């Protein structure tokens, strides 16, 4: 093998490229585009938002410094208080149902049966189809006059009078919750199914041989092993739900009589709809401490579960 | 002509000192094996030679060029990894071509080299396959082929056989040996398996806790281990050790322990005398299992002792006796024809010229 | 596992599963049937004797025709396609590079940067839309596709980065070490070895990023105003409702057609989508 000299070390790269051999320079170069975009469109707006919420800006009218006035005003606003209550209620109820139904569906899918792949593919549809579009289908199903749900309930003999799903404040909230659960269950089910599939069947078989009944097997073997995945899925779902906008915007627009507003829809109504930019920004930002708390608590809990 | 010289080489990971003052000259065309238990710094040393780890202090030279700051791509070396590290998205041929393409070799030369390497390794019929379609042994060959085509100054091997099953490992060991004879390229081979070290190495470096314990030809390590660690690490089954006291009895040096009284041969006695101060100097006596046998009429009582047999391991070609002398455990490799059972009492004899003595404090050989 | 008698299998597994599938898919069925139903059949009250939920006697394309002739629906589709594609590509580019750096390079503060990415991954769009609208206006990007193409990456990049970190971490480090010894620079080892090996991950991130951008609503609602600039979700919401009057036929037709590109992409890459989705929650 006497041809070594032909290329040998080859043409040396330019000094600039050579610098990329240093991990630190390379890392900086690779992270630069991300840092630029996230800095420009997350960090900067966040600071802008805080400043905006401390002034009295409206559309077309430059504001002046008002300190915490916007937050005080918002706090004394009964619609805002309703929105806060709604947001927590909406998040809590939907999360419980999504977890329970999602887990049930995951357990149903965690077997071998014909057509499993197809069933799994179809089940995810509510999650991937754009929310606004599928919510319109629900709004149509909940229509006061033409509701297919009323038709079905009537023919099953459950109701005799029509139900005005979106016209009554409590029923409207319930309807919204139903749609959110419908949209969220597939995500829970598929994620938990993936978690279930990482649990070795031998563990369950060993527990069965040790004499554990199915319910005990689930409680002492499956559930503890599933907990880490469950926590992460919950974290994503809780934050998405807490900050939800599209679903309420399409279903009720916050009505009837501002009874179904969440943080985001109320912020939109005040900030964009009415043009009180600073107040809208304040309402949005009021979400931040709650989101922050949820993230911190859940991350700490996840860490504890994972290191146990 | 590629020598590799390590001088005062050190490596720290944060505050952990993993390679300590390694001085070593690897000669041109030499097959040098680094052996030691896991965590001894052998792999880190290899990775520093490859350029995958930065040197904390000291120098690495390849052919008299200081390469401390040279990135791996410019060192003109090739490396075979434990998990083969075949590029999964490329065919076998493209795997082998990658290094040459990076160095901008002309296409016809690349093809010629691949063909030649494939012939050497007997993998001509695999060239179009993807790595996942290969068996473990075939992957190993491709990894070797990828190193060979490069025609590098130095081959580096990082435990290349440890993912293979026992039978294949022996077979590949032989092939590696043949390959090195044929290519005659400086090779550095890291393993934790002392059998590989003994069979493959022109010379062997034994490392422990970041220190080089001994450098030498395989038989040198076997016959004259520099310290107790090397003595115990090289050879299988491992050397027996017994804590003894040395005493001068009528002009002879005698090593004594409970149930054991061995008269040292003159040459060893002379060396032992330099360390003795008065009666009852403690020392560690070492004897390899294969240097023990069942005592016969020809054996002097000076070199015999009685043992209680605890376990008999019949291997067909030999019997391994796990036996006890006083508090010391003695493994003996004896003639398979001897009839012996557990709990028997037996008289063993040793070859006096094969005895080793170590300082119990420093563990260095006398 | 032994499942016991046939009736148990039906009661405990098959019937609940069928119910789940029915409820999860019924709204889509309703969307389809409404799309092809003439207005005369559509607007029959729930208690009308001739209410026909499950079939239609006179299927029609009039709603779809209305969509394309009376609204800018075609334009909205093109807009959404363009915005989703470009922002996905930008996010993939940034996410793959950043994911590689965070998963495979040693540099100061790598761990804390990873946490920062994870936290931005959790920032909802609704937190910042008002100040962002002002910034978009200051940059004079309002009412252009670029207002979305540049802002969608804010939630797509953290997602792609996070997912790619998982994929990159799973690739043995010996692969690029070997490439570097073979004569590749760090950059070339990344481009020729690691990124090609991570293609399934890139595909997963890309598909999910695409569906996420197609789904995005509030930025599009706030940043765009002219009818011919809108995306499908915003266009359907704002142009097919006049005051209190809902044009249900065209609305459902728009919902159906607007879902189709996502559904097609999804159907081709179900496995990638699912593996990306489950990879994203593995943490």
Descriptive notes:
The complex is a heterotrimer of chains A (308), B (366) and C (283). The termini of chain A are far apart. Chain A is globular and about 75 Å long. The longest helix of chain A has 32 residues, at 78-109. Chain A contains 14 helices and no strands. Chain A is mostly helical and 308 residues long. Chain A has two domains: 18-53; 74-307, MetI-like fold (Orthogonal Bundle). Chain B has 366 residues and is of the alpha+beta class. Chain B folds into two domains: 4-233, P-loop containing nucleotide triphosphate hydrolases (Rossmann fold, 3-Layer(aba) Sandwich); 240-358, Nucleic acid-binding proteins (OB fold (Dihydrolipoamide Acetyltransferase, E2P), Beta Barrel), CATH 2.40.50.140. A six-stranded mixed beta sheet of chain B has the order 6-7-8-3-9-10, sandwiched between helices. The longest helix of chain B has 18 residues, at 166-183. Chain B is elongated, with a radius of gyration of 25 Å. Chain C is an all-alpha fold. Helix content of chain C is 74%, strand content 1%. Chain C has 15 helices and two strands. A two-stranded antiparallel sheet of chain C has the order 1-2.
Order of helices and strands of chain C: HHHHHHHHHHHHHEEHH
Instruction: Name the beta content range of chain C.
Output: under 5%
Overall pLDDT of chain A: 87
* Quaternary structure: heterotrimer
**What is the terminal separation of chain A in angstroms?**
58 Å
Task: Provide the succession of SSEs of chain A.
Answer: HHHHHHHHHHHHHH
Number of helices of chain C: 15
Briefly, what CATH class of the largest domain in chain C? Mainly Alpha
Key descriptive features of the protein:
heterotrimer; B: 366 residues; Rossmann fold; OB fold (Dihydrolipoamide Acetyltransferase, E2P); six-stranded mixed sheet; five-stranded antiparallel sheet; 20 strands; 34% strand; elongated; C: mainly alpha; MetI-like fold; 2 domains; 1% strand
């Amino acid at each position: 093998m006497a041809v070594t000299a032909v290329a040998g070390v080859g043409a040396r790269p330019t000094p600039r490229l050579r610098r990329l051999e240093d991990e630190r320079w390379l890392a900086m170069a690779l992270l630069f585009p991300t840092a630029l975009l996230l800095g420009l469109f997350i960090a900067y707006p966040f600071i802008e938002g805080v400043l905006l919420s401390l002034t009295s800006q409206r559309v077309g009218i430059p504001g002046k410094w008002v300190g915490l006035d916007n937050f005080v005003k918002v706090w004394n606003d009964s619609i805002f208080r309703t929105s806060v209550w709604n947001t927590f209620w909406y998040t809590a109820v939907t999360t419980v149902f999504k977890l329970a139904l999602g887990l049930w569906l995951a357990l149903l899918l965690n077997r071998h049966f014909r057509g499993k792949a197809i069933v799994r593919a179809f089940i995810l549809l509510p999650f991937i189809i754009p929310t606004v579009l599928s919510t319109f289908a629900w709004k149509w199903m909940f229509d006061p006059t033409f509701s297919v749900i009323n038709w079905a309930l009537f023919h099953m003999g459950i109701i005799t009078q029509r139900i005005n799903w979106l016209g009554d404040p409590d029923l409207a909230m319930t309807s919204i919750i139903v749609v959110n659960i419908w949209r969220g269950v597939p995500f829970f089910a598929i994620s938990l199914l993936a978690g279930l599939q990482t649990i070795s069947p031998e563990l369950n078989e060993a527990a069965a041989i040790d004499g554990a009944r199915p319910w005990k097997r689930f409680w002492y073997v499956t559930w503890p092993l599933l907990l880490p995945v469950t926590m992460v899925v919950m974290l994503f779902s809780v934050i998405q739900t807490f900050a939800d906008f599209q679903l309420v915007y399409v279903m009720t627009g916050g009505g009837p009589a501002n009874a179904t507003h969440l943080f985001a829809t109320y912020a939109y109504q005040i900030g964009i709809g009415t043009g009180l930019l600073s107040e809208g920004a304040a309402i949005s930002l009021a979400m931040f401490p709650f989101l922050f708390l949820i993230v911190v608590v859940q991350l700490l809990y996840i860490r504890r579960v994972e290191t146990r | 002509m590629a020598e590799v010289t390590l001088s005062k080489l050190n490596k720290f990971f944060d505050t952990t000192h993993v390679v300590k003052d390694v001085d070593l000259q690897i000669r041109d065309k030499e097959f040098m094996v680094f052996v030691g238990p896991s965590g001894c710094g052998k792999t880190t040393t290899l990775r520093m030679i490859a350029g995958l780890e930065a040197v904390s202090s000291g120098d690495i030279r390849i052919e008299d060029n200081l390469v401390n700051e040279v990135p791996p791509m410019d060192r003109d070396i090739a490396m075979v990894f434990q998990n083969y590290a075949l590029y999964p998205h490329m065919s076998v041929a493209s795997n082998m071509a990658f290094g040459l393409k990076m160095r901008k070799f002309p296409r016809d030369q690349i093809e010629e080299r691949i063909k030649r390497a494939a012939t050497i390794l007997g993998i001509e019929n695999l060239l179009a396959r993807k790595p996942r379609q290969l068996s473990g042994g075939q992957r190993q060959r491709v990894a070797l082929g990828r190193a060979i085509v490069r025609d590098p100054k130095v081959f580096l091997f990082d435990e290349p056989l440890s993912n293979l099953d026992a039978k294949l490992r022996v077979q590949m060991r032989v092939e590696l040996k043949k390959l090195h004879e044929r290519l005659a390229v400086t090779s550095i081979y890291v393993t934790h398996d002392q059998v590989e070290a003994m069979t493959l190495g022109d010379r062997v470096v034994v490392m422990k806790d970041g220190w080089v314990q001994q450098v030498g030809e395989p038989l040198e390590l076997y016959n004259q281990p520099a310290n107790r660690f090397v003595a115990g690490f090289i050879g299988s089954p491992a050397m027996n050790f017994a804590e003894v006291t040395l005493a001068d009895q009528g002009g002879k040096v005698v090593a004594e322990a409970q149930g054991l009284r061995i008269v040292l041969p003159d040459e060893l006695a002379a060396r032992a005398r330099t360390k003795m101060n008065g009666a009852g100097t403690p020392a560690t006596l070492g004897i390899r299992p294969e240097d023990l046998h069942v005592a016969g009429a020809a054996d002097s009582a000076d070199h015999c002792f009685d043992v209680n047999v605890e376990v008999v391991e019949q291997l067909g070609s030999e019997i391994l006796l796990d036996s006890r002398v006083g508090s010391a455990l003695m493994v003996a490799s004896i003639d398979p024809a001897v009839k012996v059972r557990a709990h028997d009492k037996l008289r063993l004899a040793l070859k006096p010229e094969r005895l080793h003595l170590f300082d119990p404090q420093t563990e260095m050989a006398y | 596992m032994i499942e016991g008698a046939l009736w148990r299998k039906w009661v405990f597994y098959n019937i609940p599963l069928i119910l789940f599938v029915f409820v999860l898919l019924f709204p889509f069925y309703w969307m389809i049937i409404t799309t092809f139903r003439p207005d005369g059949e559509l607007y029959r009250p729930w208690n009308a004797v001739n209410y026909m939920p499950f079939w239609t006697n006179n299927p029609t394309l009039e709603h779809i025709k209305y969509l394309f002739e009376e609204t800018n629906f075609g334009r909205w589709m093109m807009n959404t396609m363009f915005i989703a594609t470009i922002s996905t590509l930008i996010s993939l580019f940034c996410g793959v590079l950043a994911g590689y750096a965070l998963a495979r390079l040693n540099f100061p503060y790598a761990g804390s940067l990873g946490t920062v990415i994870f936290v931005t991954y959790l920032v909802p769009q609704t937190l910042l839309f008002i100040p962002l609208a002002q910034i978009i206006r200051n940059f004079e990007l309002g009412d252009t596709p670029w207002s979305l193409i540049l802002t969608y990456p804010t939630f797509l990049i953290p997602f792609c980065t996070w997912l790619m970190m998982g994929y990159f971490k799973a690739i043995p480090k010996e692969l690029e070490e070997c490439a570097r010894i073979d004569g590749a620079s760090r950059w070339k080892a990344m481009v020729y070895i690691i990124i090609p090996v991570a293609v399934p991950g890139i595909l997963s991130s890309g598909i999910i990023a695409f569906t996420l951008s197609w789904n995005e609503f509030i930025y599009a609602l706030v940043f765009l105003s002219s009818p011919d600039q809108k995306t499908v979700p915003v266009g359907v919401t704002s142009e097919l409702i006049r005051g209190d009057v809902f044009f249900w036929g065209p609305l459902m037709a728009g919902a159906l057609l607007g879902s189709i590109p996502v559904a097609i992409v999804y159907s081709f890459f179900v496995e990638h989508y699912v593996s990306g989705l489950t990879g994203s929650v593995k943490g």
